[in-house]
Amino acid sequence: MDMDDVNEMFCEMFKLAQIIFKKGKMPKEHFTKKFNIHCETPKQFWSQLLVLIGTEEDVQIRRDVNDIYTYALCDDTKTCDYMSGSKGEGFLFPWSDIDIMQSLVGQTISMETFHYKCMFTAKRTGCQTGFCKLLININNNEGCLQDFYLSRVEYLQSRLRNNFNKNFDFTSRGPCLSTKYPGEFDRCYAFPIHPDSCVSFLKTFQKKFWNDVKSRIIVEEITVMHCVPKGPEKGDEDGHQWLISFSVLEQKIVHSLNHVQFCCYGLMKIILHSFIDIYTETHDTLSSYHLKTVLFHVLEDVHQDFWIPQNIFYCIRICLTRLVSFLIRGSCPNYFIPENNLLKKCKVLQRLLEMFLCENSLYIFTVCSYIHRDKLVLLSESHELRIFYSLCSALNVVRGYQTTYRECVHSILKIIHALQLEDDELRIAILKYIGLLLMRRIGIIMYDEFALTGYKLYLLSAEVALMFAQRANVLGLIDLATLWYRQRKYKQCIKLLEKTKLIYTSLYIDRIECCLILYEFSILSLLLFKL
Predict the structure, then answer these.
(1) Alpha carbon of 256 to those of 209, 211, 315: distances in Å?
(2) Phi and psi dihedrals of 35, rounded to 5?
(3) Rounded CA separation 410/396 (Å)
(4) Is the terminal CB of the chain with fewer CB neighbours within 10 Å at N or C?
(5) pLDDT tens by residue, 163-183
(6) pLDDT digits over 467-482, tens only?
């Protein structure tokens, strides 16, 4: 099914939801297994929502894998990587790519006043709300200090130009450098704001529902604010304005939400993707950031005890009501900088009002349409198998955004060091799996170098790396078999493919059509099921 078919399906579903709301019941011709009308009670709808978004345990597994992954792959002395976006929050939506924010350790910023440990001083005077200029003091030849502002435009151009061993398709997209290989991801470079400035801001920030998060950040002096090379929507003539980003702080707040709040946020994301983004006239008028901002404002006003599964329909409608009220007023105040209005376009209001009138029927159809039958079958399986499937799905995200040989080697050395200190068997298995994925990436890089130069040592290095990688998953086995085939080592190639077939047969589970994902993580499964 291509994207046009999917969009057409959701358009028809939207019309059907409107019919159901007007008639008060489901037409007989639309009784199907996929659209289960019996999940109209909050309890039944909540169970369907858990299948789609995941249980608390599923979400925690995804976050743990992300934490281990970013810990293993970032250079502590130069950079600190954060997996941001939907996947960093704990969602696994098929339409979301991987978003990485790379914080440049050592190149810190002090807000407004000079700090001897900081390279830059952020000045908000003369900037649009939510933006600042990065001032750097440089000694001239006469020993006098001169003030220079760092240009975000020149910075992005230099990053794109000097990126070591960059992918051929690396392009600049907003504040990010984007590529589609080895997995589609966006990398945003960011300058960290010094913890002293972060703590100073938080102490003056009076909010209620995430006070525990706030207290921990202040006590541990964590950097939660950054400046990223994104300019104001209205533009600036000199290209010197940088966006003040709260991405890390926002993620910590999202991670602190209870599961009803988290699922409510996820359902809003699904509705946005299914009924707003697919239309040309409303595409890009709203973003996930608007939805997150709406949720934060609602959480300030609605008591924590209200967010329970029995109230799921009320919770989502409260959030959508607040969004509609913001659209009617033409103002959605930034949660951290209220004077910054996030709404620039209001073309989506009519569409949102139509959705709002559909009441619960739209939410039910939307959730059911995304639930694949494989996930429903999993519900009847053992807890161990469901957890393994969840782990495999999470590991599917961390296929590797490290695209250079230098990055891969550094990451492997860090993983070896982490394995010496780790006692938890599950974390050890995940670290080993990530290390083997990186070996597969090295094998591919070395073979590409051999293809370009004909230098035999590159081929030997590729073969050694892929011999390690075959222990990760079926893709590593196939890569090595392909390499041996190209070297005319036909007997070794056939023997390896027979081994692949044997693993596939031993792990095939008749009752689960999702066996392919289990097969891909076959080596990992042999280790994990021994725990």
Answers:
(1) 10, 10, 17
(2) -100, 90
(3) 22
(4) N
(5) 655 566 667 777 887 777 656
(6) 888 777 667 777 888 8
